[in-house]
């Protein structure tokens, strides 16, 4: 009796098909791997809530804007949203018209908080017609309510704000972009940090925050965890995520068209 292994049989079969020209036929496909009997396929189980955070340097004024190769930065944001299949997205240094475009391309809902600059909204430029400068939250689920407000203090001419939305899933998603005057006690950044902590502590439901806080010390209120991009390849340590969801994890993704890495946070919803 002739004995032949499955591997040898498969090799002979591939050789025969190749000789017959069938491997290149559009209707024929062979699996590249074989699962032996009794081996259960493994699947990556994702936690039930996920968020993508990006600072996209989109205004047209900052020195990092050349890096965006506009509109390639918008393509990158859309690609990362789709690739990670997140429930929510937080964007800093964005433009309202560009956020609306991202929402259309992904099917997400959004809210936008305009930053006041020199006493008035700041129009994005190069090119013009992209709306106003600010921060945004986008969500896969419908948005039932939203609110935003300025901090009590700001440095220079830019009035910083926070933005929170409540989704149909009864999860609050918040973002902010704090001032850049340092985190020493009494600094504008530290005052804003304390006020942000109060905002998050008062939400009263499952909440997750992500944003560029321009500091390394956490602003999270008691009972919230902190994740940071301390291991990022660009501007490490100043983008944070806080929340009271369960078992959070953080993935960092190097970016091509902005000067900050992207953060992907996954966590469980409290029962």
UniProtKB/TrEMBL annotation:
Signal peptide annotation: 1-31
Keyword Transferase: no
Superkingdom of origin organism: Bacteria
Pfam families named in the record: Exo_endo_phos
SUPFAM superfamilies found in the cross-reference section: DNase I-like
Keyword annotations: Endonuclease, Exonuclease, Hydrolase, Nuclease, Signal
Lineage, top ranks: Bacteria, Bacillati, Actinomycetota, Actinomycetes, Streptosporangiales
Domain Endonuclease/exonuclease/phosphatase: residue ranges: 75-220
The keyword Nuclease belongs to this UniProt entry's keyword annotation: yes
Protein name: Metal-dependent hydrolase, endonuclease/exonuclease/phosphatase family
GO molecular function: endonuclease activity; exonuclease activity
Source species: Nonomuraea jiangxiensis
């Amino acid at each position: 009796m002739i004995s032949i292994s499955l591997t040898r049989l498969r090799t002979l079969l591939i050789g025969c098909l190749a000789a017959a020209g069938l491997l290149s036929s559009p209707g024929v496909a062979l699996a590249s791997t074989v699962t032996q009997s009794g081996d259960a396929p493994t699947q990556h189980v994702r936690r039930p809530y996920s968020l993508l955070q990006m600072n996209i340097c989109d205004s047209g004024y900052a020195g990092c804007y050349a890096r965006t190769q506009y509109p390639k930065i918008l393509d990158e944001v859309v690609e990362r949203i789709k690739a990670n299949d997140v429930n929510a997205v937080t964007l800093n240094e964005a433009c309202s018209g560009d956020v609306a475009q991202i929402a259309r391309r992904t099917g997400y809902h959004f809210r936008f908080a305009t930053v006041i600059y020199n006493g008035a909204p700041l129009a994005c430029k190069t090119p013009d017609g992209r709306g106003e400068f600010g921060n945004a939250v986008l969500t896969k689920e419908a948005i039932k309510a939203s609110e935003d407000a300025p901090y009590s203090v700001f440095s220079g001419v830019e009035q910083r704000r926070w933005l929170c939305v409540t989704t149909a899933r009864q999860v609050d998603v918040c973002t902010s972009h704090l001032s850049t005057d340092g985190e020493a006690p009494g600094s504008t950044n530290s005052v804003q940090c304390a006020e942000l902590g109060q905002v998050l502590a008062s939400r009263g439901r499952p909440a997750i925050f992500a944003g560029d806080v321009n500091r390394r010390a956490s602003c999270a209120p008691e009972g919230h965890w902190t994740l940071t991009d301390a291991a990022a390849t660009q501007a490490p340590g100043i983008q944070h995520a806080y929340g009271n969801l369960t078992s959070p994890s953080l993935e960092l993704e190097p970016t091509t068209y902005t000067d900050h890495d992207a953060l992907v946070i996954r966590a469980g919803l409290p029962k």
